[in-house]
Amino acid sequence: EIAPLLKDPDEAVRAEAAWALGQIGPSAESYMPQIAAMLKDESEKVRINAVDALLGFGEPARKYNADVAALLNDKSEKVQLITATALGRMGASASDQAPELGKFIRARNDSKQENTNSVLAALEALGNMGHAASGEADAAAETLRNKRIIIRIKARQTLWNMSPLDKTAVLMVLGSTYKYPQESDKVRLLAHYASGGDEESE
């Protein structure tokens, strides 16, 4: 019986129990409320395994999307990274949390709080959500000015996957060419694609 182990005083036992239920998947979905409660566990490992377990439950666990996304503000950068990655793996079914990813990116873009891997994961997540997350295109477009080229490359990929974009977002994309003119050809191609080939954006 795994259920009692979810409340075991040993954090390693709780973490393993959550992981095991996630491996079982949808057939163990009756445990989802208990797993969701573990997202607030004091143990970093337990919180991480709870996120992974809910991911394993598939579509039935999407009602906990907001609870998972709340961990983007976790004190642990590792938990933040795992959370952004998990939201990305959910794809469009987690697009209701795109605004939380947008906030996460804006708060960390070229700031003292920036963790490159977490920002990359958040951009990847928005890209995996596709056009359903296009309302956060401005957050992704802001990172086209990031000092790290790896983030700028990921931002272009994300915006491509989100397209088509509204005119405001397309103009933000084009505006980034002034900071990194050596990348202007790639950015202009992106803007053209993102606008649906609108000649005004060329």
Word description of this protein:
With 202 residues, the protein is mostly helical. It is 58% helix and 0% strand. It is built from eleven helices and no strands. It has helices at 11-24, 32-37, 44-57, 65-69, 77-90, 98-108, 116-129, 137-142, 149-162, 167-175, 184-194. Helix 9 (149-162) runs parallel beside helix 11. The longest helix has 14 residues, at 11-24. The radius of gyration is 19 Å and the shape is elongated. The model has no long low-confidence stretch (mean pLDDT 94).
What are the low-pLDDT stretches, counting only 5+ consecutive residues below 50?
A: none
The dominant shape is: elongated
**Over the alpha carbons, how many angstroms does the gyration radius reach?**
19 Å
- H/E element order: HHHHHHHHHHH
Mean pLDDT rating: 94
Secondary structural class: mainly alpha
DSSP strand content: under 5%
Helix proportion = 55-70%
Please count the beta strands (DSSP E, at least 2 residues each): 0
Span between termini: 63 Å
What is the helix tally? 11
Major sheet details? none
